[in-house]
Amino acid sequence: MPDDLCNRLAREQDIKAPYLDSDGKPDEESFRKHIETGHCFVDFETRPGKGVTSLNSKIEKGSIEEGIYSFVGQPIKLNGTKIRVQAKITLATMTGTGCAVLMED
């Protein structure tokens, strides 16, 4: 049974990809190098103003089109629930939308 956190992450929402340069600006080169390793970090706001849940998802499939990186992550376990991260990230801002798809065990 998914817990409250998994249920909140299952809703489509704004996300951030934490790939920033030393000045805090989006770093597309760093992001591209990282996804070449087959992983992508995605930050979900746990609750407005209450912190962030950062998930490191191994990429199952991904593509870049018109400055937007879309990916589907491999299944992972979060608090005992099997999930799969899906996201679309705008490379210029390192922001986008995503969710954690709840899966059956």
Account of the protein in words:
- By secondary structure, the protein is mainly β.
- The protein contains 2 helices and 7 strands; from the N terminus they run H-E-H-E-E-E-E-E-E.
- It has a 6-stranded antiparallel beta barrel with strand order 1-2-3-4-6-7.
Any idea what the radius of gyration is? 13 Å
Helix content: 10-25%
**What is the strand tally?**
7
Shape descriptor? globular
Biggest sheet, in brief? 6 strands, antiparallel, barrel
> Structural class, please?
mainly beta
**Strand order, sheet with most strands:** 1-2-3-4-6-7
Q: Which range does the strand content fall in?
A: over 45%
Mean pLDDT: 92
Order of helices and strands: HEHEEEEEE
Stretches with pLDDT under 50, minimum 5 residues: none
Summed up, the helix count is 2
Short précis:
With 105 residues, this protein is mainly β. The chain is built from 2 helices and 7 strands, in the order αβαββββββ. It has a 6-stranded antiparallel barrel.
